[in-house]
Design a protein that fits this description.
By secondary structure, the chain is mostly helical. It contains 51 helices and no strands. The C terminus is likely disordered.
């Protein structure tokens, strides 16, 4: 005895040390998780043995000992015969397993012993037997037709047990077993007993059990049997003297009516229900009202108009102070009433119904009792109003939400009771869906619920946060994002996460991070990268709760996957590598391996192998054994991401990692784990079925296509932004060129006019010199003159500024020739005639060049129109072709401009060559 106590004390001390190490975050505790589990099991066994030795004597222990040579059936019979109550309860609880192993011997030898034990057994054995018999009746292994009689006889025998708890347990067993029993067995064994227990001479509990069994059995038979055999019994119980029996039978009339059909229900059951609605007991009236509302869907329009509508209107006029139960039932059934009577009510009746709903939303808020003590019934009514608000919104039309229901909805969202606000948050997503494009009307209420002091409200709102935010960021885009509501909503979401993170509700924090992953598909990548990604990464590196860390890792990987900016993705990946994979704390390195496990599910194999695989394999050199231990467990998942022959080099690196762990590892746990991992790696390609591998490959191809599409979208957005920048630059350049050309033309015209006024004599002398040089040229030079207009036509500049520049160059050359040949001039009359002819020729050539310039301008305008039309057609066919066509058009224009510029230069050279040739001839 003393030795056992000492062992227990030592085990307790070891367990306390392990718990202290786990709280401190000691790395040894993570290595020896299996040892700690084993210690816990040993400690439990020691406590169990210690309890036996402390509370039982040697004689009692000897009585509890059973011969080991007995089989299961013999041991069960022996314990049921001479065993103690604990042993008998254990045998009865194990009865379904005995039936599965040997049904014939169990029903022949064990079940009769169980019936004998149940006659005088206590509550524990009775409850254990009820559970075991239910399992046997619902089990498909045994032959139910063979052994049903013996089981049902036992169940029906104990329905009238003196203990209410025991009788209710056997009743629940029978009700649940009716679905598995055949019709003939129910008709012979169950219905015969019901006929005898429905009389007034039976106990109240027996009649209540009969009502419940009738409601359950009615669904098993057709309408003729129900009308002939069950309906008289139902009508008799509806007129029972006890109000509890009438209430119970009225609750079961719905299933009986569905079994009868619409015609028989109208003729037989509806008159009984209308009588029950006028019963003197509130509970009976309430049950009748609920049953009629539930039966609306099987009624025709006349019954709804003449039975349901007057009943509903009369209940709407009931004051809450008179009958709280009926008003509470009305608030619970309000949505079903609105949807069932939408096409039957008149406009006046609809207005009355909506007015009643608005009053129910404010029930108990303006009374002193609510402010001091709190009315549970009034709180329940307002919660029911929250539950039925979407159905009432459909009933009143969503376009009239602002005038009809907005005040009530706002009141429910700001209710003083937490349960009401929680119910409003639970139905918020349905209201948002029904509002559609008018979602901005409830923007303020969303902020109110997100900032609620009670975390239960935020928990209810998180269940459907993705649907809610999707409606706000899509359909309410033009109305919310353009004002201050969008940044306010984002800051409120950040504040909600910080408030939950600072609390002890780590499960809510985990759910919130899981819901926030939808922001990657709803928010712009730039905004997400600046606001939410740093916060998620901070949670990943600082939070101490492992489920929260893993959910933060999943959310961060989701943000990384759906980010379209390559620079931002590179920055996020570098933070993961530097702060986690190469971090100073081994805890962060363990988190990186958790991220790798999550990344295999989110990213494609190609992306994972490119960014995650190599940093994970490099942790084989980690000095902490826990990190290497985690890496060994992760190796099969890393191997499954490698596909040959494309990833042959990665496979070599993984094999090198395994070899290093096998050869150089010194930690015992890591060595044992790597040996198991090697066996798993060898069987990995052989044990996986082909269809599962094919499914994984198809899923990976889908992920890779999505990632490629994201890259293409990024490239397209970049091209569009570059195109916009280029178009702006071209527009600015054209504006500058037009301004400079106008200023240049104005300056040249002013300078030319001044030059003509100041030096008209020099111009005349230059013209005379040009005429003499032309007249003194030989015939070969004259024959070249007709070709000059053709060259100008082919290479004529389009701008007015270039032609004026050419004329100024000719005038300068002519002036220099005049200074050199003035002394050799003679024959003034001939010079005059040659001068006039030359002036005429020059004027005609200028006219031809202007015509050529005009034709070129017209051609360029036509080409521009054709290019514009072709660009429109290309835009209709493909966006990428439009981009290529625009770039090609710009290149073509640049090439044309450069060609014209070169031609103008060659023309200047030609003019200069001809002038030099004439200069030589004149000299």
């Amino acid at each position: 005895m003393m030795m056992m106590m000492m062992m227990m004390m030592m085990m307790m001390m070891m367990m306390m040390m392990m718990m202290m190490m786990m709280q401190r975050g000691d790395p040894l505790c993570a290595q020896h998780d299996a040892v700690s589990v084993c210690l816990a099991e040993c400690l439990t066994d020691c406590f169990r043995i210690g309890n036996l030795m402390l509370f039982y004597t040697a004689e009692e222990i000897e009585q509890l000992t059973v011969d080991e040579d007995l089989n299961d059936i013999e041991r069960a019979v022996y314990l049921l015969s001479v065993g103690q109550e604990v042993q008998r309860a254990s045998v009865i609880g194990n009865l379904p397993n005995l039936v599965r192993q040997n049904p014939a011997e169990t029903f022949r030898r064990v079940v009769p012993k169980v019936r004998e034990v149940l006659k005088g057994a206590g509550t524990e054995i009775q409850l254990s037997a009820a559970t075991s018999f239910l399992t046997i009746l619902q089990d498909d292994i045994i032959l139910i037709h063979t052994h049903t009689y013996s089981i049902l006889k036992t169940v029906l025998l104990h329905l009238n047990h003196r203990d209410t708890v025991v009788s209710n347990a056997w009743l629940e067993t029978l009700l649940l077993a009716i679905n598995a029993l055949p019709k003939e067995t129910i008709r012979q064994e169950v219905l015969n007993s019901l006929l005898s227990k429905s009389h007034l001479s039976q106990s109240l509990h027996a009649r209540l059990a009969t009502c419940r069994i009738l409601g359950k059995v009615a669904s098993k038979f057709d309408s003729q049997i129900v009308k002939k055999e069950l309906l008289p019994l139902v009508q008799a119980l509806c007129q029972d003297t006890e109000c509890e029996v009438r209430v119970c039978m009225c609750r079961q009339l719905e299933s009986v009516a569905r079994a009868l059909g619409m015609e028989d229900t109208r003729m037989e059951l509806l008159p009984e229900l209308m009588k029950l609605t006028e019963d003197e007991e509130n509970g009976v009236r309430l049950a009748a009202f609920d049953t009629i509302i539930n039966l609306m869907e099987i009624m025709d329009s006349d019954d709804r108009l003449h039975i349901v509508v007057p009943l509903v209107m009369s209940v709407c006029q009931v004051s809450p102070q008179v009958d709280d139960a009926v008003v509470a039932s009305l608030s619970f059934q309000f949505g079903k009433i609105c949807s069932g009577l939408a096409g039957t009510l008149s406009d006046e009746q609809k207005g009355q119904l909506l007015h009643r709903f608005k009053g129910l939303c404010l029930t108990g808020l303006h009374t002193e009792a609510q402010q001091t003590n709190g009315n549970n019934e009034a709180t329940l009514i307002r919660c029911n109003c929250c539950y039925n608000l979407p159905a009432v919104l459909v009933f009143s039309d969503a376009t009239h939400f602002l005038t009809e229901l907005y005040a009530s909805f706002c009141s429910l969202c700001c209710d003083p009771e937490v349960s009401v606000r929680q119910s409003a948050a639970a139905c918020f997503h349905q209201v948002v869906k029904l509002l559609g494009s008018n979602v901005q009307l409830v923007h303020k209420e969303l902020l109110t619920l997100l900032q609620d002091d009670a975390l239960e409200v935020l928990d209810a709102l998180m269940d459907h946060l993705e649907e809610t935010l999707q409606m706000f960021f899509s359909k309410g885009e033009n109305l919310v994002l353009d004002n201050k509501g969008f940044p306010e909503l984002l800051s409120t979401l950040m504040f909600a996460e910080q408030r939950v993170g600072s609390s002890l509700r780590w499960r809510l924090h985990e759910k919130l991070l899981q819901r926030y992953s939808c922001l990657a598909r709803l928010l712009p990548g730039e905004l997400l990268h600046q606001s939410f990604s740093p916060r998620i990464f901070l949670i990943l590196t600082t939070n101490k709760v492992l489920p929260v860390q893993r959910e933060a890792a999943r959310t961060f990987c989701t943000f990384l996957r759906y980010n379209r900016k390559q620079e931002q993705r590179r920055e996020m990946m570098e933070r993961l590598i530097q702060d986690l994979a190469q971090g100073r704390s081994y805890w962060n390195r363990l988190r990186f391996l958790d991220i790798c496990e999550t990344a295999t599910e989110i990213f494609s194999r190609k992306y994972f192998n490119k960014h995650f695989l190599i940093p994970a394999l490099e942790l084989v050199h980690d000095p902490v054994a826990n990190v290497r231990y985690k890496l060994c467990q992760l190796l099969p998942r890393l191997r499954s991401s490698i596909r040959l022959p494309a990833d042959k080099q990665l496979l070599h690196q993984l094999n090198f990692c395994v070899q290093k762990l096998l050869c150089r590892e010194k930690d015992k746990d890591v060595v044992a784990t790597i040996r198991k991992t090697v066996l798993e790696l060898d069987k990995l390609d052989l044990t996986e079925p082909f269809h599962k591998r094919q499914e994984k490959d198809l899923l990976d191809q889908k992920k890779e296509k999505e990632e490629t599409l994201l890259l293409e979208m990024e490239h397209l957005e970049r091209q569009q932004s570059d195109e916009k920048m280029n178009s702006k630059k071209l527009a600015d350049r054209k504006r500058r060129d037009s301004k400079t050309s106008l200023s240049a033309s104005k300056s040249m015209s002013m300078s030319s006019s001044g030059a003509t006024v100041s030096s008209s004599k020099e111009v005349r002398k230059a013209k005379l010199l040009r005429s003499r040089s032309l007249s003194s040229q030989p015939t070969t030079s004259k024959s070249l003159n007709p070709d000059r207009p053709q060259k100008m036509k082919a290479n004529a500049p389009t701008g007015h500024g270039e032609s004026s520049m050419l004329l100024s160059k000719d005038d300068c050359l002519s002036s220099t020739r005049y200074t050199m040949t003035t002394q050799s001039s003679s024959m003034p009359v001939l010079i005059r005639s040659n001068t006039t002819s030359l002036l005429d020729r020059v004027s005609t050539s200028d006219h031809r060049s202007s015509n050529v310039d005009h034709q070129n301008n017209v051609k360029e305008m036509r080409t521009k129109r054709m290019e514009h039309k072709s660009s429109i057609l290309d835009h209709r066919t493909s966006t990428f072709e439009q981009t290529d066509h625009r770039t090609y058009t710009l290149d073509q224009r640049d090439h044309r401009i450069s060609t014209l510029y070169q031609r103008s230069k060659t023309m200047d050279r030609n003019y200069g060559g001809k002038d030099s040739h004439s200069k030589k001839l004149s000299m």
